[in-house]
Amino acid sequence: MDFTFDTEQHALREAVAGLLQRAYDPEKRRAVTQEDPGFDEKTWAQLAEMGVLGLPFAEADGGMGAGQAEVALVATEIGKVLAPEPFVESVVLAGGLVSAVGTAAQRAELLGPLAEGTSLVVLAHAEPGHRWTPTATGVTATRGAEGWTLTGVKEPVPSGARADVLVVSAAVEGGTALFVVRGDAAGLTRTGYRTHDGTRAARVTLQGTPAELLGEGTADRTADVEQALARATVAYAHEAVGAMQTALTTTSEYLKTRKQFGVPLSKFQALTFRAADMYVSLELVRSIALWATMVVDAEDSTPEAVLAAADRARLQTSKAGRHIGKEAIQLHGGIGVTAEYSVGHYTSRLTAIDHLLGDGAWAANRLAAVVDGHETVEALPA
Amino acid sequence: MQLHLSPEDQAFRDEMRTFFTTQVPQSIRDDVAAHRDVSKEQYVEVQQILNAAGLAVPHWPAEWGGREWTPLQRHIWREEMQLAAVPEPLAFNASMIGPVIAAFGSQEQKERFLPQTANLDIWWCQGFSEPDAGSDLASLRTAAVRDGEDWVVNGQKTWTTLGQYADWIFCLCRTDPGAEKKQRGISLLVFPMDTPGVTLRPIELLDGGFEVNEVFFEDVRVPAENLIGEENRGWDYAKFLLGNERVGIARVGATKRMIVDAKQRAAEITSDGRPLIEDPSMRVRIAELENELLALELTALRVVSNSTDGKPNPASSVLKLRGSELQQAATELIVDIAGPLSLASFADEEDTDVPEWARVATPEYLNYRKVSIYGGSNEVQRTIIAGTILGL
């Protein structure tokens, strides 16, 4: 049992932190997120140069062969400055699926350019009217003489308009399969829009759109999607922890400097006690996020253990993110609600993360379904 | 980053688990598990079994029975004890006065007190709080005035836990009323509870039990040699001691055991025609509590695996704050599962059909309001977090 990072991991953290802190302060972030594609292409390229965009992929596929721990470090630094680059969405989620499911040729073709920053790959999975399911129903796949075509609507798809390649989940006979769709494919219409957290999403309409099956055979890929979503959830937990940490630091600084009634706000116990409670929430969620990362990385973890760890991380992230996000604004007062000041954007991003892959109530229901299946929850493997 | 315990720590955990579940009498562990009162004789019996095996005071210096374990091993030791429902070594001896004497006492005091303290041959009680000095402990007024070779103690202490069993008391007394800072004029004296002038009055708590007392001192003569450490430095020793008190106060193992109980009881109670454990809102409530407890346990593991010097970490305030809240949440859960049965609190075994767990549920819940008050109230912990960690 060891919660600490090694020297190499610390070096990675330093490098990523340096790059992102130079790239973003609240004003720069605001400027970047006002223009399409909602992130900075130059920063994305620099992350690629640093090897960050290939971190979790095998070296043979053009990646760095790193684990969830390295992903966690990067995600935390992204969260701290609210960097809008779609690292979790693209590298961890879409890249993770290609890595897990794709053939050797597909992995080489898709992951190399993704790692180099020359091709943005995202997952088109969510469908209007369906919440947080690992299956696809609204988009169907049909095999014709000239190969597969897809029809239906995916929305919201993070960075869906900017993406060069989409990995699309679709219903096939016997379950859900995954397909690769090029950005310039016939019958593909993408309508991008801004999201409340400054990033971009899109409606992706497929009308007989030519697609390439990801992986071999049409066996049901639901379990693969579930695992990829779980890993992305754990990465998001760290992005959220980074965001919560900055939200708390910003709030503490504000309490020390803002004066009312002739004294700094930090003289009011009603406020400092609430800040203390935010710290408690932050440290508890940090512990669970680190633990879930270790569960993902442990060689003997079963797929079920990874799913459960992701649900536990999701539940705690949701609770802590709501608590810290709301209190950060309240303790600031009116300025916290303005777009000009940073802290409210942290709350906005935390709210987005909470709803991208499943919120706390949803995770609690999943954990509740199996609550009598064990005596105690074991932090350490037996 | 490593999820697994090292093979050594794994073996250590197995060794602890085996010892606690095979060497401590089952009947005593059953009493603890059933939330019955543990008698003085039972406490002494268990602590002497532990001490004989080197498991009563592993955190003390090696020459006085310490084992030089890592903080993680100490954590495992305590958790396994709680999971096995073993009454822990008496905190007043093992976590409070023992480490203070070991760190600040004279050689003569160490030899005189430490072996008997480890073995619970001396039962210590704590003379800290006073009617006008609770969270503001430094404003205590019990006075010790030097008279020849003795200190003469006058005043009153309160909330003295299990003082009715105690042989000796360690007592914070004001020895320099003129000190510039009130913290500077306090000394730590120890003396037998049967010294002339010491009177004890039990305080009944909401659960009908008598675990705390008021202690009155009227011209109690204490030999000068019973001063621990230096005169007027008692506040430093109190802070040292209370820091120790917070370590292990998360009580994760004990709360885990309560949740196991809760699930079992919820399966036995029928609500709306089905077992209560099948009620969706009950399931969510238990799942959420389990997750909060996991987060706490992992935070405790983070604190112990990161503090190599064994010093109290400011984050230990999080453990106290959250640990007490979750203990309380678990007792509340069990009361709610018991529902109307919980009313039969004080019925004797032969007069009622209500099972024992349901009868003790509400007294326990009411008694457990104490855990967010003792050991530095949760408001004190918030003050520490806001001040020491957030710089507010």
Describe this structure in words.
The complex is a heterodimer of chains A (about 375) and B (about 400). Chain A has about 375 residues and is of the alpha+beta class. Chain A folds into 3 domains: about 5-120, Butyryl-Coa Dehydrogenase, subunit A, domain 1 (Orthogonal Bundle); about 120-215, Butyryl-CoA Dehydrogenase, subunit A, domain 2, CATH 2.40.110.10; about 220-375, Butyryl-CoA Dehydrogenase, subunit A, domain 3, CATH 1.20.140.10. Helices cover about 50% and strands about 15% of the residues of chain A. Chain A has helices spanning about 5-25, 25-35, 40-50, 70-80, 85-100, 105-115, 220-255, 270-295, 305-330, 345-355, 360-370, and strands spanning about 120-125, 140-145, 145-160, 165-170, 175-180, 190-195, 200-215, 260, 265. In chain A, strands 1, 2, 3, 4, 5, 6 and 7 form a 7-stranded mixed beta sheet that branches. In chain A, strands 8-9 form a two-stranded antiparallel ribbon. In chain A, helix 9 (about 305-330) packs antiparallel against helix 11. Chain B has 12 helices and 10 strands. In chain B, the strands form 3 sheets. A 4-stranded mixed beta sheet of chain B has the order 1-4-5-8. Chain B has a 4-stranded antiparallel beta sheet with strand order 2-3-7-6, with no helix packed on it. Chain B has a two-stranded antiparallel ribbon with strand order 9-10. In chain B, a hairpin with a 2-residue loop joins strand 2 and strand 3 (about 150-155). In chain B, helix 8 packs antiparallel against helix 9. The radius of gyration of chain B is 22 Å and the shape is globular. Classes of the chains: A alpha+beta (about 375), B alpha+beta (about 400). Chains A and B meet through helix 7, helix 8, helix 9 and helix 11 of A and helix 8, helix 9, helix 10 and helix 12 of B.
Fill in the keyword field for this structure:
heterodimer; A: 382 residues; alpha+beta; Butyryl-Coa Dehydrogenase, subunit A, domain 1; Butyryl-CoA Dehydrogenase, subunit A, domain 2; Butyryl-CoA Dehydrogenase, subunit A, domain 3; 3 domains; seven-stranded mixed beta sheet; two-stranded antiparallel ribbon; B: 392 residues; four-stranded mixed beta sheet; four-stranded antiparallel beta sheet
